[in-house]
Every structure is written in structure tokens, then in C-alpha cells.
Write a structure and sequence with these properties.
The protein is mostly beta strands and about 350 residues long. It has three domains: about 190 residues, Jelly Rolls, CATH 2.60.120; about 80 residues, Immunoglobulin-like (Sandwich), CATH 2.60.40; about 70 residues. The protein is about 0% helix and about 50% strand. It is built from one helix and 31 strands. The strands form six sheets. Strands 1, 3, 5, 6, 7, 8, 9, 10, 11, 12, 14, 15 and 17 form a 13-stranded antiparallel sheet that branches. The radius of gyration is 31 Å and the shape is elongated.
């Protein structure tokens, strides 16, 4: 059976009603990179962090998977009561019951009162492993009048890389356990590891079917770390992670295509120690099929680019050998052929010879 937020609050006893309703997106003034985030929260409700009248501790956690390192600080939507006297402790762990990897203790007079809003918890920076799971732990020894953490729930998972957790009476449970809703705290994690500019793929822009072509990149990774790379050839072929390579090293790879067409080659790179992951801009590569043909007739507007010649027909005829085919081109139709032709004579606007035509 679907549970509402009020039902779960009644059962667990750790939701507190603020004033009003609605969904708000927060804004941080920090210059660091926002890595992970879930920005939505309700102004009318929050997860309670305190020690209740029975001596039971209420702790809230939010799991997340960083994509970069280091982790420098987190933003949370939080408020407290004017009666609060004890601080709130925000820490990072790599397991719910593990030791704090870093933490910050903040007194209540530095926390927004009554109306929940974004607050930055600037703990000492720590190195994290990208794509591993970590937990933001929020706890306090404040009795009764505690701290209230903004959250959001939905039938759609707004943050699929983590979830909200609750600790009560000695046990951790997922907030959405037994519910059709997905629960997450409103949070943002930050890193100061600025990703570098991606390298440019160097290589040809066109070629023939079933011929290997070479493409190269040169990348300087952050802080001169070694790096791995993976080539995506745009034909359904993706290489394994290759490396590690030294920063500044030129890396080359070969590939051939079995079908003619236009392909967007990309390279995915990640450095070994800091987990910065970037993608190159696509390198456009056109694969053509060659057909030898006799060409003769009148043309206009000869142009050349990268070893390919293009002409516009006035009255042109081509006889293809395999398979045999006679084609008549007129009125500006374009014909493209390789500059490295078999034998060709051009006089004014008349052309005759044997060419490797592009189809």
C-alpha cells in the first residue's frame, strides 16, 4: 500500500512540519564545482535530527556517488528552533556505521531558524573515490528541539545515485522502504578539481571502407596524473579502457569501418588518482565506397578539399565498371572523385579520363 509523507511521519515520529507548502530550488554562492545534487525540497516538512524524550537518537543520512575528488563541502537545506542550544554535526562516511572521514560541528546560532534554507558545511577536504558510495551523516545531541533537514519525495527517482536514510532505535532504514515514493534530502556536494580542456582528435576526415586509419590524441591530465582512455568509433565499437598513459603522451589507435557513412569518433578519458572524466568533441569521419569509372563531358565549379575533388555537371557521363552502369549527370549535379585518379585530362570545362569515383 502506498504510504504518504504524513503516514510515515506518524509511524517514525521524525518529520516536523514547518509553515506553508511548495517546492524550492536552492542556490549556492560557492565557486567550487557542484558535483552531486538534488535541489528540490518541501518548505512544509523536514526530517528531524535530535534525541527524543525517550533518549532515542534520530540521525539522517543521504547516500551519493561522487564523480570527482576531492570532496570540499556540502550544502544542505536545514533549519532549527530558537530553543536549540546544542550543535549539529555533519560528517562524511563510506559506510553508515563507519568512522567519520571528515566532519564539521556547527552551533545553532549559525543555522537558519524556523524557515529552512540552504546552508554550507565547509568541513576539511577529503579525497574520495569516484563512483564509490558515500554518506552525508547529520546528527545532534539536541533534545526535543532539534534540526530539520529539507527533503523531497516523488514517484520518479530525482537522484538515482543515492537515497535518504534514517537511524532510529539502533537501526538504519531507507526512508523509501515499503513505499512507492523515492526519498532524498536536498543536498549538493562540491569539488575544486576543475576538469581540463579535452584534447583534440587528430586524424583523417575521410577514407574508404575496410581500410585501417590512425587517429591520435595528446592530453595533459590534472596535476600530471597518469590516465586511461577509451575510443568510441561510432559504429557500435567501443574499445576497452587502455592505459595507463603518462600525461602529455601522444596516444594513437587504428580502426576500419565496414559500411560507408558519417561517423563521430570520440575519446573518453579519466585520470588515475583524481577521477576527473572528460569526453572529446566528436571527430567527423566520412567513409566512402570507391567505384572506378570512365568520365567525360562538360562541368563547372571544380573544388578540392582534403584530397577529394568535386565538380558540378553541365553535361557529364560516367561509365562504372563493377557493376557496369551508365549514368548521365546534368544541371549542377555533383560528382566527387579522389584526387589520386587513374588517368585524367581537364581542358577548360571539359573532362575525360578514368577516375575513382566516390559513392
Amino acid at each position: 500500500m502506498q504510504k504518504s509523507r504524513v503516514t510515515k511521519a506518524a509511524v517514525c515520529g521524525i518529520l516536523f512540519l514547518f509553515v506553508g507548502t511548495g517546492i524550492i530550488s536552492g542556490v549556492s554562492g560557492f565557486d567550487e564545482i557542484v558535483d552531486q545534487h538534488q535541489d528540490n525540497f518541501y518548505t512544509g516538512q523536514g526530517f528531524t535530527v535530535n534525541v527524543n524524550e525517550y533518549g532515542k537518537e534520530h540521525v539522517v543520512a543521504q547516500s551519493f556517488k561522487p564523480s570527482m575528488t576531492p570532496l570540499t563541502n556540502v550544502d544542505l537545506v536545514i533549519s532549527t528552533s530558537v530553543f536549540a542550544t546544542l550543535p549539529v554535526i555533519v560528517s562524511i562516511r563510506d559506510s553508515l556505521d563507519g568512522n567519520d572521514l571528515t566532519s564539521i560541528t556547527t552551533p545553532p546560532d549559525q543555522i537558519p531558524q524556523d524557515n529552512a534554507s540552504w546552508h554550507t558545511f565547509d568541513f576539511p577536504d577529503i579525497t574520495v573515490v569516484p563512483e564509490n558510495t558515500y554518506y552525508i551523516i547529520i546528527r545532534s545531541n539536541q533534545t526535543i528541539y532539534g534540526y530539520f533537514i529539507g527533503f523531497f519525495n516523488s514517484l520518479v527517482d530525482n537522484y538515482p545515485r543515492g537515497a535518504a536514510w534514517s537511524y532510529y532505535d539502533g537501526n538504519w532504514t531507507l526512508w523509501d522502504e515499503g513505499s512507492n515514493y523515492f526519498f532524498d534530502c536536498a543536498f549538493k556536494t562540491y569539488s575544486n578539481n576543475q576538469p581540463p580542456n579535452p584534447p583534440i582528435i587528430n586524424g583523417p576526415t575521410w577514407g574508404q571502407k575496410n581500410v585501417n586509419y590512425t587517429f591520435c590524441i595528446t592530453w595533459t591530465s590534472p596535476e600530471s596524473d597518469d590516465f586511461y582512455c577509451r575510443w568510441n568509433w561510432s559504429d557500435g565499437t567501443i574499445s576497452e579502457w587502455l592505459g595507463p598513459y603518462s600525461t602529455g603522451q601522444t596516444i594513437c589507435a587504428n580502426h576500419s569501418w565496414s559500411q560507408k557513412g558519417t561517423y563521430e569518433i570520440r575519446v573518453n578519458l579519466i585520470d588515475v588518482y583524481h577521477g576527473v572524466e572528460i569526453y572529446t568533441d566528436p571527430h567527423i569521419f566520412n567513409v566512402y565506397e570507391l567505384k572506378r569509372a570512365i568520365i567525360f563531358g562538360r562541368f563547372t565549379n571544380l573544388s578540392e578539399e582534403g584530397g577529394l575533388n568535386t565538380i558540378e555537371a553541365i553535361n557529364l557521363r560516367l561509365i562504372f565498371f563493377k557493376p557496369f552502369q551508365f549514368v548521365h549527370y546534368t544541371n549542377g549535379e555533383k560528382i566527387t572523385y579522389f584526387d589520386d585518379t587513374i588517368k585524367l585530362m581537364i581542358l577548360n570545362q571539359f573532362i575525360i579520363g578514368v577516375v575513382n569515383g566516390v559513392t
